[in-house]
Design goal:
Layout lengths: L1 H7 L3 E2 L13 H4 L1 H7 L16 H13 L3 E5 L2 H13 L5 E5 L4 H10 L2 E5 L6 H6 L7 H10 L4 E5 L10 H10 L3 E5 L23 E5 H4 L7 E5 L7 H11 L6 H14 L2 H22 L3 E3 L9 E6 L4 H12 L1 E2 L2 E2 L4 E4 L6 H18 L23 H5 L3 E5 L39 E5 L2
Parallel strand pairs: 1-11, 3-4, 3-5, 5-6, 6-7
Antiparallel strand pairs: 2-8, 7-8, 9-10, 10-13, 12-13, 14-15
Helix pairs in contact: 4-12, 5-6, 5-11, 8-9, 13-15, 14-15
Amino acid sequence: MLKLLSKKLNRILFTTPSHGQIPPNFKHISRLKGFYRWDYSEIEGFDNLLDPKGPILMAEGKASDIFNTKKTFFLTQGSTTGILAVLKTVLNFKDKVLVARNCHKSVYSGLVLTGADVDWFVPDTKSEMCLKWGVMGRINPEELKDTFKLNQYKAFIMTSPTYEGIVSDIEEISKICKEYGVLLIVDEAHGALYNFSDLLPKTAIEQGADFSVNSLHKNAGALNQCALLHISNDCPYDWREIQNSINLFHTSSPSYPLIADIEACINFLSSKKGKKEINDLISNILKFQSALENEGFEFLKSDFKDVTKILLRLDNADCSKLSDVLFDEYNIEDEISSPFSCLYLTGIGTKKTKLDKLKSALISAKNKKFDKIKVDEVKIPEFQPYPLVKLQPWEAFNRDYIYAQKEDAPLMLSSEMIVPYPPGIGILYPGEAIQQEHLKYLKEDVGVIKP
């Protein structure tokens, strides 16, 4: 099956995982035959990821030194496992938690499992940048502080960088959280390279977060499901508590090839060769952007933007149609597109030759198809409406549901998640009132909570 699929998949991918199917740093592990050589169970003399006492404990200890943490855990089921474990550790039934609305759906799953009560915090959607590019922006520290003045929370959960690479001021947010006794949990899944280059933002842990997660597969060159959970040195929780929570969600048969892949990935990133590869990637991206700016393309740039997430637009163009042209005629697939922008993810595995192919395709598409992708009307992004939470996640999960016609659904309570993939950010969650803006995402028969 894989051989058949690989023949059909003749594409240039600017998606996750970033390794491009040819990891430069640990080929001996990731080749198919290598997988079989490393694929063991917990046999005598081998360590166990759920209770490490030997080589895995040593590898995690080395990772903790590299990331300057109290403890760094290896995860073979993605950052989701880390999010669930942290929430299970710190939240009890009916604890109040504040969650940024652009968080991954795994946070919602954690709210269901813990029985915590959620308030939602909406990042910036009103700035010129957000309106121009059609993306959610940063967390506003002053708005966050005002929210803390009015409510008591056990924790604040946020995403930085965002899917598009926008980074919030975690250092300032951390100070505010500490002032009000609120734990800071940062989904840093897309920021796995930050620890290894001065040309990238500081890590969430460096800036004062209590917990953070990294997805090594997204841009650090590792295989799908390879991830890390970091616990800060100042975190009030003992790492053994976190380990116990991880064990609730992690499979009892974690993959040794993935464990080895995590270790090899971290070792490579922290080596001179690895750091040079990251800096070369950034240099190549800057040259790529400069060349395309001369061709009329525009890139989202700022002091709080991760350059490895390439967000571009062409003035007066519907970028979703530009994306279609690149896919249909040049076999180039972006991570996600909208009328306002196209997102191309890069990382370890993104070589200059790959960027050159994208550059040539964009220039060609612009010249050949520009008249077909123009739009006359002014485009205004439609951000999701502020959620009307009528039942907490844990309440909604256990309620009976029925089906209703879509036209009758407004103000009924949804029993379904509406979560576009990518990016895995919820537009509508169970227990929230269906609003008019949600209807375009719904089927004709809508699952609603039974009155």
